[in-house]
Amino acid sequence: MRKLGFMLFLVLMLGIVSGSALAQSAPVGDGSDYFVTYYANATISGAPDAVVRVINDGETGNNLWASYYVFDDSQELQECCSCYVSPDGVNSEDLNKDLLGNVLTGKATTKGVIKVISSSNGDATANKPTAGLRGFATHIQRAQPTTGAFFVTEAPLADANLASAEETMLEQLCKFAIILGSGRGSCTCTPEDYDF
Q1: What contacts 158, CB < 8 A, 6 or more positions away?
Q2: Which of 3, 69, 80, 126 is deepest in the core (most CB within 10 A)?
Q3: Are 30 and 159 in contact (CB under 8 A)?
Q4: Domain regions of the chain by residue span
Q5: 128: how many CB neighbours lie within 10 A of its CB?
């Protein structure tokens, strides 16, 4: 009986030690540094405004920046910028005012794509991709394609794979937008404590 009790004790101790070792070696977070989402029914009279919220999960303990790249549905960059997000902080950007309020083409866009790079510097033309941001976006849906009530849904930004060619393209497009836009094409950042 003592042998059985001793064996059960050893099995229990091995289980505790193994579980502790697994818990210590488990990765924290998922290492994502690139995200995408879409927007629809933007800048339409009577439609509610969408919001993109990005949080710094605090894992690194460092300040991070959300580099935003806003495209229309013809794959043309409309605006770009890099917004500060402190550890455990949140950055909220109003789609119509902050991310589409100064479009490069000067023409209001109603649908498109938003790409976000989590970066350890504040330069959307020369990112240093660093995991630690997580994001959510509200989407404005319509009951019928051109008529009817608007509905607001919210979803996490989708994780995406940031290939070096994609990063370079985004940074170059942003650089060209800033240079050639003569003041247009740069989105604005709402400071953390001044969210709407």
Answers
A1: 35, 36, 37
A2: 80
A3: yes
A4: 34-190
A5: 15
